[in-house]
TrEMBL record:
Homology family: Belongs to the cytochrome P450 family.
UniProt-recorded Gene Ontology molecular function terms: heme binding; iron ion binding; monooxygenase activity; oxidoreductase activity, acting on paired donors, with incorporation or reduction of molecular oxygen
Coiled-coil residue windows: none
Protein name per the record: Cytochrome P450
Family matches, as InterPro entries: Cyt_P450, Cyt_P450_B, Cyt_P450_sf
Length: 389
């Protein structure tokens, strides 16, 4: 049951939270300083089963992650990391991204068929994000396992998930912290231009991050860069190959991939919701009074289909003239640090897939859009099967 308020914001009694699904309301809440992103507590029954010692490493590391930090600490960490994700820094990686995609597609041509996620996107993102954060090639397999073990702890909120996932996450947090400490102590093998290479060169700088801060954010950036971007890439490919006009346009004018990705971010927004907020004081959003302590859920997927903002919102139209900034990356101080990188990866993969050289078209079985178990706020196609010439 909900009580009526503004068209794009209402309080849901059953959920005990404000639901924000209007475009303008979404912008207002996201930009307001009256809301924090709190760390969500674990279920009491889980705390009894696993014990505090197992939880401590995971909870302690989350204190350093950009998503949950606030104030001066947040600004200091963001300034230290932000230079690796500017448009200029991302543009410097585009050629490498294109080259890797073509290498992987050439391998797929031999078989005549690929699963985009398994054969292209996942290996591409693993390579890119390892280079960005600074994991040497010989250590990428282990680091990838540890990073995904921490992410998979999100399944603890799913009924029936084993508590062993938390034990594995705690072990992985400790392993990543030790790895970062070792790499900073011997930086010669660190990828140039990476976060860890930059940190190693500024270890005596007062503005530098501690080992614990670096470990937490390197792991978070790596995991977020893979888990969310692979769904954006899959959704972009789905829209290209299920929309004849988009495919024709891209083959004639490859630069139009920018409009296709932007419309994909609106129409098939990879973030069903962005992280839940909690009011730190009473605040009025249009005609709705949100009280201190109230929970607020921002439903990006519905806000991107707001008929008050977009014409024919339920139609995919890469030529639309009423495009706006994507909501999936969030806004305000906690906006996604890697938004330019994620967009660039989707553009380069989509542009290359549309190249007539590959003669790519979508093959059966056709995918459905689903939420991910460990990250239920993220959704998209779980696979894209493409036949290649």
């Amino acid at each position: 049951m909900t009580h009526a308020s503004d068209p794009g914001i209402a309080f849901d009694e059953e959920l005990g939270a404000w639901i924000v699904d209007g475009h303008e309301e979404f912008l207002a809440v996201s930009r307001s300083t009256a809301f924090n992103i709190p760390k969500l507590t674990l279920p009491p029954e889980l705390l009894v089963n696993v014990g505090k010692v197992d939880i401590d490493p995971v909870q302690e590391q989350s204190d350093y992650v950009l998503l949950y930090s606030v104030g001066a600490d947040h600004r200091r960490r963001r300034r230290f990391l932000a230079g690796h994700f500017t448009r200029q820094a991302v543009d410097g990686r585009r050629e490498s991204i294109r080259k890797t995609v073509r290498e992987l597609l050439t391998e797929g041509q031999r078989a005549g068929r690929i699963d985009l996620t398994a054969d292209i996107t996942r290996p591409l993102l693993t390579r890119i994000m390892s280079d960005v954060v600074g994991i040497p090639p010989a250590l990428r397999g282990e680091f990838d396992e540890w990073a995904h073990a921490v992410t998979n702890a999100g399944q603890l909120g799913v009924q029936g998930s084993p508590a062993e996932a938390l034990h594995r996450a705690a072990e992985s947090v400790n392993a990543i912290t030790q790895l970062v400490r070792d790499l900073l102590g011997s930086p010669v093998d660190l990828p140039r231009g990476s976060i860890l290479s930059y940190a190693a060169g500024r270890s005596s700088d007062a503005a530098s991050l501690s080992v614990e801060e670096l470990a937490a954010n390197v792991r978070s950036i790596y995991s977020s860069g893979i888990e969310t971007t692979e769904y954006l890439v899959a959704s972009t490919a789905y829209m290209i190959f299920s929309s004849p006009s988009a495919l024709r346009d891209l083959r004639a004018y490859p630069s139009r991939i920018e409009a296709v990705v932007r419309e994909t971010l609106r129409f098939a927004c990879p973030a069903v919701e962005i992280p839940v907020r909690r009011a730190n004081r009473d605040v009025r959003i249009f005609n709705s009074l949100i009280r201190e302590g109230d929970w607020v859920r921002l439903v990006a997927l519905k806000a991107e289909r707001d008929s008050r903002r977009f014409s024919c919102p339920d139609e995919f139209d890469h030529r639309r003239t009423d495009q706006s900034m994507p909501l999936t990356y969030g806004l305000g101080p906690h906006r996604c640090l890697g938004q330019h990188l994620a967009t660039a990866i989707a553009e380069e993969v989509g542009r290359t897939l549309a190249d007539p050289e590959y003669g790519a078209h979508m093959d059966t079985p056709f995918p459905g859009f689903r939420r991910r178990a460990a990250l239920p706020v993220i959704w998209g196609p779980e696979w894209i099967h493409l036949a290649l010439a």
